[in-house]
Design a protein that fits this description.
There is one protein chain. By secondary structure, the chain is α/β, with parallel strands linked by helices. 43% of the residues lie in helices and 14% in strands. The longest helix has 21 residues, at 76-96.
């Protein structure tokens, strides 16, 4: 059996520098996780070290994607430049290890008019899908300015992996403060906030009618469905099949012209078990 690891993160030094230099109101505190222990060294390694780690874990193929927040917080010009650089560098890594690596592309979401163009370019490089986050600044992914992107993803057969990101500063102040700094950050990220952020983004796409306009669009929700399709950390928001096997491998066909949100999720979302 081939073991494929999805959402295997990496970082690019030039992008890390740009994100760390962002204004305080745009800086993503979750970048601190990349600096713990030997994380930076391991995340930057797309060569022999990563392949050795895959071998040690019995992983046949890794589908790599940048760590949060990608290029989302950057200015449009920076986002375009560094998204292209990341996609080119990742393509080189695949060329070096074509049987072991695949790529989810990076897109300049802060430059809405460039997103579909870079998705096409990344697909031409051989990338197998893309990873995005639920908003860029105050602009949500369901905003009509991104409709060309979803149309392109559907046309190209490029799955869109909707990854969590740090909640907005206002939401963090309202819901995730009051503890020691690292506890605040943990609660706002892997402890709870990341997953609600991605679930909310997915629900907004459904309610905006994105899947009705683009019936061939495929969206991937990681981490057991980000609280949206399963209840791994709390109550299930939308009903789903009872087993991990069903959640990971089954999407249900459209059963009506105006399905409720749960039907849209089953029809168009895949939920990896991690």
């Amino acid at each position: 059996m081939t073991l494929i690891a999805i959402e295997e993160h990496w970082i690019m030094p030039g992008l890390t520098s740009a994100l760390q230099a962002a204004p305080p109101e745009l800086r993503d505190d979750s970048l601190a996780f990349n600096e713990m222990g030997d994380n930076r060294q391991r995340l930057e390694d797309l060569g022999a070290g990563r392949i050795a780690a895959m071998d040690a874990q019995g992983i046949d193929v890794s589908i790599i994607a940048l760590t949060p927040p990608g290029t989302h917080p950057l200015t449009p010009a920076e986002a375009v430049r560094l998204s292209r650089a990341a996609n080119d560098l990742a393509a080189e890594a695949v060329t070096d290890n074509p049987s072991r690596l695949r790529v989810l592309s990076t897109l300049p979401v802060s430059a809405p008019n460039e997103v579909a163009r870079e998705l096409q370019r990344a697909a031409d490089l051989g990338h197998v899908g893309t990873m995005v986050y639920g908003r860029s600044g105050d602009l949500f992914l369901d905003d009509p300015v991104y409709d060309d992107f979803f149309a392109a993803a559907a046309r190209l057969g490029q799955p869109v992996f909707l990854h969590p990101q740090l909640p907005s500063p206002a939401l963090r102040d309202a819901s995730y403060r009051g503890f020691a700094p690292m506890t605040d950050l943990a609660l706002a990220t892997f402890g709870w906030g990341w997953h609600l952020d991605a679930a909310t983004a997915a629900l907004r796409l459904i309610l905006r009618g994105t899947f009705d306009r683009h019936p061939d669009l495929q969206v991937v929700l990681g981490h057991w469905g980000e609280c949206c399709c399963s209840g791994w950390t709390g109550p299930t928001v939308l009903p789903t099949s009872p087993t991990c096997h069903d959640r990971c491998r089954t999407t249900c066909g459209r059963t009506s012209s105006s399905p409720p949100p749960a039907c849209s999720t089953r029809r168009s979302c895949t939920t990896p078990c991690r």
